[in-house]
Amino acid sequence: xxxxxxxxxxxxxxxxxxxxxxxxxxxxxxxxxxxxxxxxxxxxxxxxxxxxxxxxxxxxxxxxxxxxxxxxxxxxxxxxxxxxxxxxxxxxxxxxxxxxxxxxxxxxxxxxxxxxxxxxxxxxxxxxxxxxxxxxxxxxxxxxxxxxxxxxxxxxxxxxxxxxxxxxxxxxxxxxxxxxxxxxxxxxxxxxxxxxxxxxxxxxxxxxxxxxxxxxxxxxxxxxxxxxxxxxxxxxxxxxxxxxxxxxxxxxxxxxxxxxxxxxxxxxxxxxxxxxxxxxxxxxxxxxxxxxxxxxxxxxxxxxxxxxxxxxxxxxxxxxxxxxxxxxxxxxxxxxxxxxxxxxxxxxxxxxxxxxxxxxxxxxxxxxx
Length: 369
Hints:
Layout: E1 4-9, H1 13-23, E2 28-33, E3 43-44, H2 52-61, E4 66-69, H3 72-76, H4 79-85, E5 89-91, H5 99-102, H6 104-113, E6 131-135, E7 145-148, H7 151-160, E8 166-170, E9 176-184, E10 187-190, E11 195-196, E12 203-205, H8 211-230, E13 236-246, E14 249-256, H9 261-268, E15 271-272, H10 275-281, E16 286-287, E17 291-298, E18 308-309, E19 317-320, E20 323-326, E21 329-332, E22 336-344, H11 347-355, E23 359-360, E24 363-364
Helix pairs in contact: 1-9
């Protein structure tokens, strides 16, 4: 296979991790990134505008063969379709299937059509509490989901979002997991399920499931594969299913049109071999022994633009989120500064211990463990 030039589009820890994994591949010729992740040999693709037609033209002039897009807003804007029209291959969900996250109506119709269990809807007049109000459309983080525990709260939320379309759903409790799926033509890979540890932001994989949960998870994933193939999901990209175990089945809470930073970083640190080869061929990956975990590190707003001091520890990997460089000095530039990752028998303890030794201007970093 001819070595290829690749552009990784996005500025978060997720793109840093992907760029670092791809940089190690013998299939790579030149790596371009939209942010300086300090990866040896990588070149910066400087582009301020969100005009993807112009970006595709510049990528073509640079001889870029493949673009990997992690940014959700770019995916919803149809960036994949635009690069494809410019004869540049792109990894990411296309505009049509970005509606799985962007349009609640599209998502519900998709699940109903193929018998995929979703969270039951409630009428606006329902007095069953707690309940969940979700804003239709793409929104970052949890800004589109509101847990309501009384009619008073419900009235306040509806007043606040009165100009937006919303849906009301039942509030479900149960074991929650995420499954990241990679669609690569006729090949569909389901990576090991992930879980967020309670009372922390640590995401880890693989997850221990009982025999019935494993069986029902396989049933769900088969339905998802069947649905994507029948709907002619002609994209190469990631899709994340957020699931909850309730009444002896897995129920889809929502879909995400990519993988979050901690999810993808956990998976990357659990995979053996060449990640770029997996992306290009859809080959089933092999996995390392042990558990892979990822932890985002947050600081107080008052600590933005201060110097970061990191302890040495060989096994802990660090992926940049909101940091900037002044020479060789790292400075914070936002509230989430890193994602830490480790693969071992007990990575959760290793990461929490390491995080406790990070210093911001010689004071302990504040992270929400």
